[in-house]
Amino acid sequence: MSPRLEAEHLFKVFGRRPTEAVERLRQGADRDELRSDGTTAAVIDASFRVEAGEIFVVMGLSGSGKSTLLRMLNGLLEPTAGRVRFDGRDLTGLTDRALRELRSKKISMVFQHFALFPHRSVRDNAAYGLEVQGVPRAERARRADEALALCGLAGWEKSWPDELSGGMQQRVGLARALATDADLLLMDESFSALDPLIRRDMQDQLLELQKTLKKTIVFITHDLNEAMRLGDRIAVMRDGRIVQTGTAEDILLRPAGDYVASFVRDVDRSRVLTAGALMDTSVTGDAPACRCETARPATPFAELCAISARLSHRVSVVDEAGRVVGVVPRQRLVGFLGDEAAGPAPCDNPDGKVISRA
Question: Which domains are assigned to the chain?
Answer without folding.
Answer: 50-106+182-268 (3.40.50.300), 275-337 (3.10.580.10)
